[in-house]
Amino acid sequence: MAITVFIRYQLDPFKRAMFEQYSKNWLTIIPKCGGDLQGYWMPHEGTNNIAFALISFENLAAYKGYRARLRADSEGMANFNFAEENKFILAEERTFLRKVAL
């Protein structure tokens, strides 16, 4: 069963540019590590501190393998460290979704 990971980020609204750079970095890292990146979405109008990402996988086992590859990837770890050092992500929530099919 295919799954999509829906990630909701709460951002420091004064550090949105840093989050955007963080998101752009993932555009190449995630596919390299096995995720089917649907995209990142930044605040545009209205609420200025919420962003989203969607990444799809064949199944939960594929997601777990991806997470292991991501943690072993030097660019991935550098991006995680960039976020941790600059504290622009205040909260991160993951929801695992499946597509409704007939």
Tell me what you see in this structure.
The protein is of the alpha+beta class and 102 residues long. 42% of the residues lie in helices and 31% in strands. The protein contains 3 helices and 4 strands. A 4-stranded antiparallel beta sheet has the order 2-3-1-4. The mean pLDDT is 97.
Question: What's the structural blueprint in terms of helices and strands?
Answer:
Blueprint: E1 3-11, H1 16-32, E2 36-41, E3 50-57, H2 60-72, H3 74-86, E4 89-97
Antiparallel strand pairs: 1-3, 1-4, 2-3
Helix pairs in contact: 1-3
Short summary:
This protein is of the alpha+beta class.
The count of helical stretches stands at 3
Low-confidence stretches: none
Structural class: alpha+beta
Mean of residue pLDDT values: 97
Distance between the termini: 13 Å
Care to count the β-strands? 4
Helix fraction by DSSP (H/I, runs of at least 4): 40-55%
What's the oligomerization state? single chain
Shape: globular
> Which sheet architecture does the biggest sheet show?
4 strands, antiparallel
